[in-house]
From TrEMBL:
All residue ranges annotated as the Amidohydrolase-related domain in the record: 101-402
InterPro entries: ACMSD, Amidohydro-rel, Metal_Hydrolase
Pfam families: Amidohydro_2
Natural source organism: freshwater metagenome
PANTHER family linked: 2-AMINO-3-CARBOXYLMUCONATE-6-SEMIALDEHYDE DECARBOXYLASE, ISO-OROTATE DECARBOXYLASE (EUROFUNG)
GO MF term list: carboxy-lyase activity; hydrolase activity
Protein name from the UniProt record: Unannotated protein
UniProt GO cellular component terms: cytoplasm
GO biological process: secondary metabolic process
Amino acid sequence: MASVDALLSNTSFTIAEKGKVTFLPEPERQERLYTFISVDDHIVEPPDAFVGRMPAKLIERGPQLIRRGGADIWTYDGQEFPNVGFNAVVGRPVDEYSFEPSRFEDMRRGAWDIDARIADLDLSGVYASLCFPSFLPGFAGQRIQLSTKDAELALATVRAWNDWNIEAWSGAYPDRMIPCQLPYFLDPEIGAQEIYRNAERGFKAVTFSEAPHMLGLPSMHSGHWEPIMRACAETDTVINLHIGSSGTSPSTSDDAPPDVTGVLFFGYAMFAAVDWLYSKIPVRYPGLKIALSEGGIGWVPALVDRLNHMLSYHEMYGTWAGIDMTPAEVFLRNFYFCAVEDPSTFALRDVIGTEHIFLEQDYPHCDSTWPRTQQVIHNEIGGLPADAIRKITWENASRVYRHPVPVDVQNNPDAF
């Protein structure tokens, strides 16, 4: 495994010239062929995200943005976090892609400004979007909790981020944004209380770590997370496991070129799926919904085959004794799979379950299909039956995340 933080510190992984910033010409509004909900986009937290939302006694140690050495830097509890943009590269040439930019003016404004984001969703034909945090919190909020020894500061910062999201980001356009909260890891009982509280405020999802043991926290097999799992099940809060939320990425040898890690980045989605499956959390909570964000779908049929193959000797382990459903049946019931560009796998949609496939745009990261999202969707699934297209493009996400789509938009992607 490769450490994501180690990757961030390696500026030699790309040929991009540091400091060179080029914005491509403004793209035209794309032809809207499909109503579409993207279940994976990202936020670059704006400069005022935490302003007025931290307790007075914690403001100085809480997240603050400063300019130093020509870069925008977040400070937090005496530490500095310089990767403000973290791969917010849409609208830039590919040869400038990196883990920068480190200044807000070097990003497309839609990366951090909600009004500009909506304009960019309109441009690429995305009706609604679920957004994950970016570099400062970490994909599951782990950085702002594990980089400090002050649990009170960590909890206040998680709450401030969630307050900002529901008030100023998702709350600014409630018809277009699906609210997704940060979890509180450091005390599962308090974390569960936050899930209940945030469900009442309108949050539909939580971004959780795919592998908390890789962060130095208890594993999914320990029983430690039971209060949070129960709270998610009882509030119908979808658990999103975004690749990289373990702080690691699959890799091979230390001297392998960086492309190797890039190709394998999706792989932890499969590892996480098996780990969570055999924790039997989905068995204990049969209604729990677990989405493997940005994990792709190509590996899913192969894993189903492997799970079924192991039925011939799984009794030797005893792990699954006394459970009526097979591991593959539980896997296909509780997990949902998110595709960016997986054109060859849609032919196997019946193995995966058409009702369990989402699509994503991944704005503003380098994997993003923006602004050509509608054409990518058409190339991938345009030849499928109409009912399958409807489910994959918006209906599944609308149902699972409980985000209604107006009838006129359902029938006409130009209606918003």
